[in-house]
Write a structure and sequence with these properties.
387 residues, Rossmann fold, six-stranded parallel sheet, 15 helices, 2 domains, seven-stranded parallel sheet
């Protein structure tokens, strides 16, 4: 066995957090791993691990072998399974997503000679600060002892890199910026009439779309109130809003109740979670994103690639993805009036909307193409396979 492991082609394990039937933005995360694996085939065997494999995968990888393995659990039975898999398949690199080293058994990986990479997908609070004592302890642990850190922490934006260096105190040589990417061939402009038929959205109505997970920081309640302002400001205009996101969150029913309270009726639709977002983007005329904590914003870039300008709260991520005044408008985090006015500015000017939509797609193609992301990720992984 030992001789076999020494001579076997090394393995790379991409660790997903959710069962393989969970789609939405996780399809894009899985696709980026799949594309990265396509650049590693000659030098490594690549696997994608889900805590559960179901008969109905949301995404079917082409270059990754799916395995049922919970790489985030610290239960003894799961750690034993992970250790056995690492040994049998000669895993040399594991790529995690949003996994603080303190939540993993880093000692196990050190003992087995496994290098770890973490893609930093979570939002963060740029104003967050530690006490002096905690800051000092963190500095000693990570900067001096080089513990509680991955081989690489992949920030998805420059603002997140700054946060990792300043707050998390990750050593600078362990942080890399690789902008998230999307499949710009799939997310592309298309026939609006067909898309409206697919989604059930009225083609005669001008639609403003919001896409996010159903979490408080996404502030869809704010979007609902802004919708009321926009509709009241243009009482004769045929304007509608549609929110696409999971309906199984407790806060979802609160948002529905607020829309009912404000008597929005069919002017604000809740489409629920959708595995295929492309028809919704193509049916829409504008995107609005009210999140106050956003490290990147995949849905923003998806909409841009589909030719939509974006009005967004000026959280960290949107400040990098959106070119203010060219591909969208950035609004102060707390200024609902300015947000409503920005939406009206686009709804009142179709030519501007179309021009900024074209520029939005050009920006997505230039900066946020998933192939570029995959190549950069594969190069880092390859460097760890051959130190």
């Amino acid at each position: 066995m030992g001789k076999h492991l020494i001579t076997a082609k090394p393995g790379v394990l991409f660790a997903m957090r959710y069962p393989n039937d969970i789609g939405y933005v996780w399809n894009t995360i899985a696709l980026s791993r799949d594309f990265a694996a396509s650049h590693l085939i000659a030098e490594a065997r690549c696997f994608i691990a889900h805590p559960e494999l179901t008969p109905n995968p949301a995404y079917s990888p082409q270059n990754l072998q799916p395995v049922a393995l919970d790489c985030y659990s610290k239960k003894a039975v799961d750690l034993e399974s992970l250790e056995r898999f690492i040994q049998v398949h000669n895993i040399r690199v594991i790529v995690f997503m949003s996994a603080l080293p303190s939540t993993l058994d880093m000692g196990l990986f050190r003992r087995l000679g496994v290098r770890t990479i973490n893609t930093e997908n979570d939002s963060f609070d740029p104003a967050k600060r530690d006490s002096l004592l905690l800051h000092a302890l963190k500095f000693c642990m990570r900067r001096v002892l080089k513990r509680q850190i991955h081989a690489y922490h992949l920030a998805n934006a420059e603002s997140q890199k700054d946060f990792l260096l300043r707050y998390a105190l990750i050593p600078p040589n362990r942080v890399r910026v690789i902008y998230d990417g999307i499949n710009c061939e799939r997310y592309s402009p298309g026939g609006r009439q067909v898309a409206c038929a697919q989604t059930g959205l009225d083609p005669e109505r001008c639609w403003v779309i919001s896409v996010s997970q159903a979490r408080p920081e996404k502030r869809i309640d704010r979007m609902i109130r802004i919708a009321r302002r926009v509709i009241d400001a243009r009482p004769k205009a045929n304007i509608g809003f549609v929110y696409v996101g999971a309906s199984n969150s407790p806060i979802f029913s609160e948002w529905q109740a607020l829309a009912a309270e404000l008597k929005l009726g069919d002017r604000f639709l809740f489409a629920g979670a959708q595995n295929d977002l492309v028809p919704f983007y193509r049916a829409a005329n504008l995107m609005a994103h009210t999140s106050e904590l956003e490290s990147f914003g995949l849905s923003i870039v998806e909409a841009m690639a589909c030719g939509l300008p974006v009005v967004a709260s000026a959280a960290a991520g949107p400040q990098e993805t959106i070119s203010h005044g060219q591909t969208g408008i950035l609004v102060d985090l707390q200024d609902d009036d300015a947000f409503a006015n920005a939406i009206l500015h686009y709804l009142d000017n179709e030519a501007l909307r179309e021009r900024h939509g074209i520029m939005a797609r050009e920006r997505a193609l230039a900066l946020f193409n998933i192939e570029r992301q995959a190549v950069e990720m594969a190069e880092l992984i390859s460097g760890l396979l051959h130190p």
